[in-house]
Amino acid sequence: MHPSKSQEELIVELSTVMERFSAQSVALGEMYNALEMQAVQLKKMQEEVNQSRVLSALGEMAATVAHEIRNPLGGIGSYASLLARGIPPEDPKRKYVDKIIGGVSSLNKIVSNLLAYTKKTNLQKQNTDLVTWVEAILAHAEIEIEKEKKNVRIERNFPSEPLCAEIDNERLQQVMLNLLINSIQAIEAEGKITVCIRSRENFAEIIVADTGKGIDPEHLSSLFTPFFTTKEQGTGLGLAIVKKIIDLHEGKISVESTQAGTSFCIEIPF
Ligand SMILES: Nc1ncnc2c1ncn2[C@@H]1O[C@H](COP(=O)(O)OP(=O)(O)OP(=O)(O)O)[C@@H](O)[C@H]1O
Ligand SMILES: [Mg+2]
Hints:
The protein is α+β, with helices and mostly antiparallel strands. The protein has two domains: 1-120, Helix Hairpins (Orthogonal Bundle), CATH 1.10.287; 126-269, Histidine kinase-like ATPase, C-terminal domain (Heat Shock Protein 90, 2-Layer Sandwich). Helix content is 57%, strand content 18%. It has five helices and seven strands. The strands form two sheets. Strands 2-4-5-7-6 form a five-stranded mixed β-sheet, covered by helices on one side. It has a two-stranded antiparallel ribbon with strand order 1-3. A hairpin with a 2-residue loop joins strand 6 (252-258) and strand 7 (261-269). The longest helix has 80 residues, at 7-86. Adenosine-5'-triphosphate (ATP) binds at residues 113, 178, 182-183, 186, 210, 212, 214-215, 223, 228-231, 234-240, 262.
């Protein structure tokens, strides 16, 4: 038979057990907290997945609607232009027809931008000399400058030799035009846009810099978010499309802006 334990021994034993118990309950508490944090994270991830599902469904719907709207819109535009031809400019009715034509052209811009943003894209890359390619795009920009009736000079800072990269000409042209048009719109009456092309270590760099009114620092983080715009007639899809196409090229885009102007820098990997 064991000799019976003294009261003191029992107390020591009990306090050891209690210590172990309290250490374990601390560990359990920590585990519980970690589990709870994971549950919160999981819930957040689940919400993100749901949101991206909704967004992609919305995107698909927007693309379908935009596509369906395009043809009737084209019809309205053509008929309105025909009507305008038959009405002399001094006739008061002409003002209304011109408003219809203006409205149709804004709707067309929204539809094309929505389609460009939601389009499922496989890039069609070609080996392209960036200098010749940009030069052709600048011709479009010159037309835009004339349309806006502004005195904007385009300065070229190009390499003397061809600089080739694998790009989807058409989609990247959309990028360049969006940047150039934003620059033209940011310039009040007169200013300068500098376009620079150069070769870096393993990427080509294209910079579009303007002497426009600059971007409010608090807007910088929203620029590439779809539908962010400060313009009355803007869709806010221009830079979202730009970002999407640059991402598809596995490139990068960055922006710097002061009150003296804005500069967008694109990097396209070779
Ligand atoms: N070069 C720039 N100078 C000043 N602000 C700019 C410049 N580029 C973009 N922004 C700002 O970023 C916003 C978003 O540009 P984005 O091209 O996405 O849309 P938008 O130009 O407003 O509309 P849209 O492209 O449909 O005409 C603009 O409304 C403008 O406030
Ligand atoms: Mg724009």
